[in-house]
Design goal:
mainly alpha; binds magnesium ion; about 160 residues; elongated; Ferritin
């Protein structure tokens, strides 16, 4: 094993953070279903699937380093959203929080001169730029909506896989 015990603990915590993201986006998708906005729901289901992939990347890296993956109970996600805009804002806030998590991991990797983990994390640094950009785009689009028919137009666009 070439990575520190501290790093193993932090990377395991990030496995949980990424699965928490999966859970949070599923709750957002179900909230959109409740609002009958199925295009938005589709976008958030796809987002949730990506988070599962992220969690698995961290888990695989731990295993490649000969470390155990230890799963924790997930946080209960918020589900009592009232508006599409509220959900999109929560998604942006969530991605900013994950970006901070990744930056903290990168800071630790550099402090420990853990070059393998630093190289592994580089993908996530880039990915977070994309995640913050795509959720912010969605929030900006939803924020421009002033009439219900505009929301439905956006809805149609998202269900065809646009908006990312
Ligand atoms: Mg993620």
């Amino acid at each position: 094993m070439t990575i520190s015990k501290k790093m193993i603990g932090k990377l395991n915590a990030q496995v949980k953070n990424e699965f928490d993201s999966y859970w949070a986006y599923m709750a957002m998708a179900f909230s959109f279903e409740g609002m009958n906005l199925k295009g938005f729901a589709q976008w958030f289901y796809a987002q949730a699937e990506e988070e599962k992939v992220h969690a698995m990347k961290f888990a695989k890296y731990l295993m490649d380093q000969g470390a155990d993956v230890v799963l924790e109970a997930l946080d209960k996600p918020k589900s009592d959203y009232k508006t599409a805009k509220e959900i999109c804002q929560a998604a942006v806030n969530h991605e900013l929080k994950i970006t901070k998590d990744i930056n903290n991991l990168m800071t630790l990797a550099r402090a420990e001169k853990d070059f393998a983990t630093e190289a592994f994390l580089k993908w996530f640094v880039d990915e977070q730029v994309e995640e913050v950009a795509s959720t912010t785009d969605l929030l900006n689009m939803v924020s421009m909506v002033s009439k219900p028919e505009q929301l439905l137009m956006l809805e149609g666009r998202l269900s065809r896989g646009g908006g990312e």
